[in-house]
Design goal:
The chain is α/β, with parallel strands linked by helices and 226 residues long. The protein has eight helices and eight strands, in the order E-H-H-H-H-H-E-H-E-E-E-H-E-H-E-E. Helix 6 links the parallel strand 2 and strand 3. The model has no long low-confidence stretch (mean pLDDT 90). One of its GO terms (molecular function) is hydrolase activity.
């Protein structure tokens, strides 16, 4: 019998250390796109990119909503990232633990599918997840609605015929977990790599909407039911 729990794993700063280098390159690429196609200065682009990420969960959502940017073009241009694979790394114990973790495993990321596939291949997890749920799959009413949009969570779970109480979201981003918990999902806060919030505050205390905080994914094996 298949395990009833369904694990929804985030990608960046959950399965690998994106803050080490990948995020810096992505941020620079997104800002360059905004300079090129929206006519902004580098300073204006950096401010707007951060604002949209904080407000909507992804820079793309703000650009689509306020500037009519085409998602496919934006994702293709900003995620080329030559040499990405050469500096990606996860943690061996974590990656081994995911393979042994009982239950179904899905990837749920605000990144595009091509980027997610490159990262999973580089860190050796290509064959672990039965499905990749990427930002291309998070479209509602013609607009990008990535995590933490609660409506998107509901729609995705309905498409997969999953109940919220079956699902465990493993994430580094608290606002995504807050949204998932409000729908009845269990939440695990991964803190191996990300120790500070976007505003620079240290992330120390576990909020009430987080069921469990871990500093390694291997820790999930010690209590896989959360």
């Amino acid at each position: 019998m298949r395990h009833s729990k369904v694990w929804l794993f985030d990608l960046d700063d959950t399965l690998h250390n994106a803050s080490h280098r990948a995020f810096a390159e992505l941020n620079a690429s997104m800002s360059a796109y905004m300079v090129t196609y929206l006519g902004l200065t580098e300073e204006e682009a950096a401010v707007l990119r951060t604002l949209y990420w904080q407000r909507y969960g992804a820079t793309l959502s703000g650009l689509q909503r306020h500037h009519r940017v085409k998602p496919a073009h934006f994702l293709a241009e900003t995620h080329k990232l030559p040499g990405l694979e050469s500096h990606l790394h996860g943690h061996g114990h974590d990656l081994s633990a995911i393979r042994r973790l009982p239950g179904r495993k899905l990837l749920m990321t605000n990144a595009p599918r091509s980027y997610a596939e490159r990262v999973l291949s580089a860190i050796g997890l290509t064959d672990v997840f039965e499905r990749l749920i990427c930002i291309e799959d998070m479209i509602l009413f013609g607009h990008s609605r990535p995590k933490p949009d609660a409506r998107m969570f509901r729609v995705v779970l309905a498409r997969l015929k999953l109940r919220p109480e079956q699902c465990i979201l493993v994430e580094d981003t608290l606002i995504h977990q807050k949204s998932a918990r409000s729908l009845g999902m269990s939440t695990v806060w991964m803190q191996r790599w990300l120790r500070k919030a976007a505003d620079g505050r240290r992330l120390q205390h576990r909020p009430a909407y987080v069921d469990r905080r871990v500093r390694s994914l291997a820790a999930l094996l010690r209590s896989p039911q959360v």
